[in-house]
Amino acid sequence: MLLHCRGADGADWTPIARRLAGAAHPRRVYAPDLRGHGRSDRPGNRPGAYAHETLRDDIAGFLGALGIDRADLVGHSLGGAVAYLLAQHAPGLVGRLVLEDVPAPLPLDPPRPPAERPEGDLPYDWAMIEATDRQRNAPHPSWWEHMSRISAPTLLVGGGPSSFVPQEQIAAMAARIPLARVVTVDAGHLVHETRPEEFLAVVEPFLTG
Description:
- β2 (71-76), α3 and β3 (94-100) form a beta-alpha-beta unit.
- By secondary structure, the protein is of the alpha/beta class.
- Strands 1-2-3-4-5 form a 5-stranded parallel sheet, sandwiched between helices.
- It is 37% helix and 12% strand.
């Protein structure tokens, strides 16, 4: 299961999905659009519509609807946050976990200022941007406290010094997850897009076990 970053959609993973599905150890690959993105519903400003826990439950429901009782999760940025929350909440659902340049759920100081909406039609729901900014500024403390509940082998892929995500946060998050290790690919925040071959070179062997 490939979970995209904020503002993208499942198609962002197409080259990676093709490689994982057609690898030496082929697997069935899903890359859904998170709510508020792509072709998924846009619930707007309804209370809790874009809570991280709601996104988490969407993915759990997606797996349940397909009759999948265990899956490997690969999440980038926001998709990674959704993935680790699912791994905390329902450890039995997650076989292996890959977190691509995912910031630690720690309060921002100073907080991120309100974003200004771009002109024209957007490929995502602007209410999602506002809601996830609020949660990024003040994440629920349990997200950090419950990292130790993740039982899946976990690979954290950092984007290196050119990423806007503080890389020491990635290391700190790995230290809280029991079966975790960190690999850095100096590509900035968009690791799988900027350096897909290097990304696959570390992710494919990890997923194969």
